[in-house]
Design brief:
heterodimer; A: about 220 residues; Rossmann fold; 2 domains; 5-stranded parallel β-sheet; 5 strands; B: 5-stranded parallel β-sheet; 4-stranded mixed β-sheet; 18 helices
Chain lengths: ~220, ~475
């Protein structure tokens, strides 16, 4: 099997949500001595971006987008070990700190966005759910992320997004990063009102906005 | 399997017995000499077109009608079984008016409207059959009945529900179908169209309808016997009395067809309406009319005959909350009653105005009703207790293969006529309400429609035949 064939098969495996095959093909590419960073981009990440675009256009369902992202994760796991072994590093687009605000334990939306951003080439630090405002501030200080993602699924907790942005301002950290807000009750208008840099209404728009904020598109 | 039943077995028996009494004692007017002759031949009493039918004749001939029959596409593929628990939706028929898609104005329908409607229906998943839904007013009146059928055959492969306005008209339409089927034998073997034959309530079989019924029976073409009582005016205000009278009309038609050709397919149909005592208009959206339709189907099923009803129509003048309400209620009742042929989608102003936008909306209603009667699948796959235990507390099902594999089996995927997006996305995409959405879907479907062409040789034969008829009628009309 030629190198190009493997890339093509990887694309197909992602489209078929076949995580086992993604893993197997990743292993095969390493045996063949292919560049794992190139394989990660051409075999997996590119295919997932296309699926994300299909989702954005309303052509596929969210379950299919997640399944494709998981297949990519399975393949990427194998490749990442090889990348570390070679002492190489995949160029990351940026570091993203993400979490669901205090009082809110919804994690599905946040996890989907994390998976999609990771596949798009971002480094992800996931703080989990029900994260208090001061923890967001502390973690921003510690990790110095380029992007901060604040998720809130409830109208009763979305006020926390504003509280976090205000706390970052008080600590002189606001201008060191870009902030994206998301969640069912959140809107463009709300994002502007609380001084966020962007609003993501679904997983594929989160990737698009993140890339824009990083000056990539 | 969910199933709606409004009548008990005793109720059905009471209606049957009352119908036999009316048939035996008062009888029914049949204004067609061929029909009165054959009825007399089997032992009915005929006195100046009033026929009284003994119950022995009903018993002898009713049982000959088939319980179900197959309906075929234009190109000869088996399409639907009419009977059992199957539900087939098709547009309401023969509207004079149409809602103009651009202006929203109610105006007379023309050929282009009929073509658009047929092409749209060809692209609607839950509208299974075509119907001669509008009467194009830009063609001479004495050819419009068969011209509609010709337009359907040119533009769609779906089976057809139709009917004639005249004796000649039916024969021409029969010939059109024979040409498309490759002969009369093939047409009888593989029917592509159902013909409505309508008695006139109360208790009259008119000359044209009776002749249409006889000609359908002779050719083995499925005939839909459709009583259209206006409750309170041309039938009793009570539901039960209306059922008795319609049943008398149906049984008479059934006997005529089965004497002519035992075993020829017939359908027990109905187009019940409530006569509105305030406006003196008819209401097809009245719940009592829907109850008559549902109960009529129960009578039909009891006789072992496929059923039909006009449901899904609305008395509203525009696609609005009223039309949504009336169509949803009646289509849901139709599906739960397992009425085999349900005509009415797209229709507004009772039976006078077709709307392409309402057709698109009704398609969603029909799909929803069909999903409802599929019921709830309970087996190890759908119970999924293993999966529930695997995902556990606080997990989610979005990433599970089970979700992907069962989504389309379990869930009716809605069309874009229904707003499901966030209010923010809705505003961003233009804050479109139902009518605007519907028009966009109509436009997109018509723009992307690809006509499956009629076989060239058949098309040529049809044109020769029809041009000849047009010429004989002295029209300069070309098509």
């Amino acid at each position: 099997m030629g190198n190009e064939d493997i890339i093509k098969e990887m694309n197909e495996a992602v489209n078929n949500f076949d995580d086992e095959l993604c893993k197997e093909l990743a292993g095969k590419s390493i045996e063949l001595g292919m560049d794992p960073i190139m394989v990660l981009e051409d075999g997996f990440a590119g295919a997932l971006r296309e699926i994300g675009e299909s989702f954005g256009k309303g052509e596929i369902f969210i379950t299919e987008l997640i399944a494709a992202a998981q297949a990519v994760e399975a393949g990427a796991e194998v490749l990442n070990i090889e990348i570390t072994r070679l002492g190489a590093s995949r160029e990351t687009i940026g570091k993203v700190l993400i979490g669901t605000v205090e009082g809110d334990i919804h994690n599905i939306g946040k996890n989907i966005v994390s998976t999609m951003l990771n596949a798009a080439g971002f480094e992800i630090i996931d703080l989990g759910v029900d994260v208090p405002t001061h923890v967001f501030v502390d973690k921003v200080k510690e990790h110095k992320p380029n992007l901060l993602g604040l998720s809130s699924l409830l109208t009763t907790t979305m006020g926390k997004q504003k509280e976090i942005i205000d706390a970052l301002k008080e600590n002189g950290l606001r201008d060191s990063l870009k902030i994206i807000v998301g969640g069912a009750p959140v809107s463009d208008e709300w994002a502007r009102e609380i001084g966020a840099d962007g609003y993501a209404f679904d997983a594929s728009s989160a990737v698009k906005i993140s890339l824009e904020l990083m000056g990539r598109k | 399997m969910p199933n709606l039943k409004l009548l008990s077995n005793d109720d059905i028996e009471s209606i049957h017995v009352a119908s036999l009494e009316v048939l035996e004692k008062t009888g029914i007017t049949v204004n067609n000499s061929q029909a009165t002759q054959i009825l007399a031949n089997v032992g009915c009493k005929v006195e100046s077109n009033i026929v009284t039918i003994p119950s022995s004749v009903i018993d002898e001939f009713l049982g000959k009608a088939p319980e179900s029959f197959k309906l075929y596409t234009r190109d000869g593929l088996e399409s639907h079984i009419v009977g059992g628990d199957n539900v087939i939706f098709n547009p309401g028929s023969s509207a004079i008016y149409i809602t103009d898609s651009d202006s929203g104005e109610i105006r007379k329908a023309v050929t282009r409207d009929m073509v658009n409607l047929v092409q749209l229906v060809d692209n609607l998943d839950h509208i299974h059959a075509q119907s001669t839904a509008v009467v194009p007013t830009d063609v001479p009146g004495d050819i419009s009945e068969w011209y509609r059928l010709y337009l359907i055959l040119k533009n769609s492969t779906k089976p057809i529900v139709t009917g004639a306005f005249s004796k000649d008209g039916l024969l021409t339409m029969k010939r059109i179908l024979e040409i498309v089927s490759g002969g009369s034998e093939n047409l009888a073997k593989e029917p592509k169209a159902i013909f409505d034959c309508c008695p006139t309530s109360p208790l009259i079989w008119g000359d044209v309808s009776t002749q249409n019924l006889i000609d359908c029976a002779t050719a083995g073409i499925p005939a839909e016997i459709v009583s259209a009582p206006q409750m309170g005016a041309t039938s009793t205000v009570t539901i039960a009395g209306t059922l008795v009278q319609s049943n008398v009309e149906f049984l008479t038609g059934a006997v005529i067809s089965q004497i002519i050709n035992p075993g020829t397919p017939i359908i027990y149909g109905g187009c019940p309406a409530a006569f509105d005592m305030r406006t003196t208009s008819i209401r097809l959206g009245a719940v009592e009319a829907m109850m008559v339709a549902s109960a009529t189907a129960e009578l039909g099923k009891n006789y072992g005959i496929p059923t039909h009803a006009y449901l899904g129509l609305s008395d509203s003048k525009t696609l609005d909350a009223q039309s949504g309400f009336e169509a949803t209620l009646s289509v849901t009742i139709a599906a739960l009653s397992r009425i085999n042929v349900v005509s009415g989608a797209g229709m507004l102003t009772a039976v006078n105005c077709q709307s392409l936008e309402k057709l698109v909306f009704d398609n969603e209603i029909c799909g929803t009703a069909l999903r409802l009667i599929e019921g709830i699948r309970v087996d190890s796959t759908t119970l999924a207790s293993d999966l529930i235990m695997k995902v556990g507390a606080g997990g989610h099902y979005l990433a599970e293969k089970h979700t992907r594999e069962n989504l389309r089996k379990e869930r009716l995927i809605p069309t874009d006529i229904l707003s499901r997006e966030s209010s923010d996305s809705w505003k961003k995409s233009g804050a479109k309400e139902t009518r605007v959405r519907a028009k966009e879907i109509v436009d997109t479907k018509l723009r992307n429609h690809v006509t499956s062409p009629l076989d060239e040789q058949i098309d040529g034969q049809l044109e020769d035949y029809l041009k000849d008829i047009v010429a004989k009628k002295g029209h300069s009309f070309t098509f």
